[in-house]
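The authors assume throughout that readers already know how a fold can be written as discrete tokens. The format is easy to grasp once an entry is in front of the reader. For illustration, here is how one protein appears when written out as sequence plus structure tokens:
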Amino acid sequence: MIKKILIANRGEIAVRIITSAKELGIKTVAVYSDFDKYSLYTKLADEAYYIGESPASKSYLMAEKIIDTAKKSGADAIHPGYGFLSERGYFAKMCLDENIKFIGPSHTAIDNLGSKTRAKELAIKNKVPVVAGTEKAVSDIAEAKSIAANIGYPVMIKASAGGGGKGMRVVKAESELESSLRLAQNEARSAFGDDSVFIEKYVDSPRHIEFQILVDEYGNAVHLGERECSMQRRHQKIIEETPSVIMDEKLRHEMGECAKTIALASGYSNAGTVEFMVEENKNFYFLEVNTRLQVEHPITEMRTGLDLVAEQIKIASGEKLRFKQDDIEFKGAAIECRICAEDPDNNFLPSTGKLEYIFRTSGNGMREDTGIEQGNEISIYYDSMISKLISYGENREIAIYKMKRALRDYKVRGVKTNINFLLNLLGSKAFMEGKYNTQYVEKYFLPELINKKMEIDDETLVTLSLASILFKEKQESKTATKQALKTSVKSNGWSSQRKAGYR
């Protein structure tokens, strides 16, 4: 069994890992940058070590420094969380070479699945449905034009090593192809150090469904159901829920089995997420594998009753899965909202500054995962997420009501947040009825919200104008009354002293 874990991460996910490790009786080691010296997770860990300056490139992305710290602290395992080094195959290999357990898949699985082209080849080989397109990276524009013409426009250019919407371009006509290809390559090179891109048919307005998997080191695999992640803006998830309203047992079984097939074919072990897009007719296609714990993992925990971080640690310790697919029970419904320090009225720009005041209510089916305390600052160096709110109810309707209540009670002063935006989104007809897809927020919701605000602004202007007119008329009336009174006083011969005393 693992005895001491170094968490190669920060904030909310570091707190989350520390919590599960403590419950398993495992000691924890935190690492921190200049900015994070007094953060919550450094207080909760048994030990904390300084690793560098605030920019991630000088701290949390310094693989050698983190390995050295693990050795110095006597940690026999490293949990990478999500982001930073979590999907870097070379970091998993460094851990292996130093006889430190990497709590995640092997470096070969990370490299094979981290490349979208290699993952797609694996899917095709194992008869998992994929969208029509190239199986290998494309760089030659003449080749790209030939492929796109054969597939049929519109097409999507995607970074092979990418994620989070970076290195992606929708191309609607051949005239746009060359410039889009170069832009995607440049963005991919800048974000991932790899400019490989591939082309596939663009599927308009699909749903984004992902399956949580657990695989032990002995080839035993289970899926823990789906998460609906179609509420997105610029390919970034906003709200996640489980179960998906489009899911039935047949579709869940088919997609879940495909997820396990991909994992086992790649030699995967530990926790991971297999992502699919689903058309309106319920045809589904493999997208990619995230070889790490997902931000939205808590909703799966709420619905299955499993602690995914604890399961990760047990698998990394060499334990076999203690349950089979038929043992997994799905109960109720769960929703996650990401509360972020950003300004929805200013193109969602991050809002930095000190959190002067935070008030939230929990309990009654609510959970909050956070690494932020009142008095902390939101920095330019890291993600702007303040916390994750998770609601759970016996059905979807109850989970929505609980989330709305918790969001209304959540108060933040010092930075702008997306709380009202989330409330508006949860209250939209499309969300309430479950009739939304990956294009809903940008194509329909945001334009409607802007129009609504403009209407409100117009009404406000009218109201202010009327108020101004009424105020002016009232002031003119008062002036006329005063003038009449002065005339009356003069005509009655009152003294100035008597006027001064008049009330």
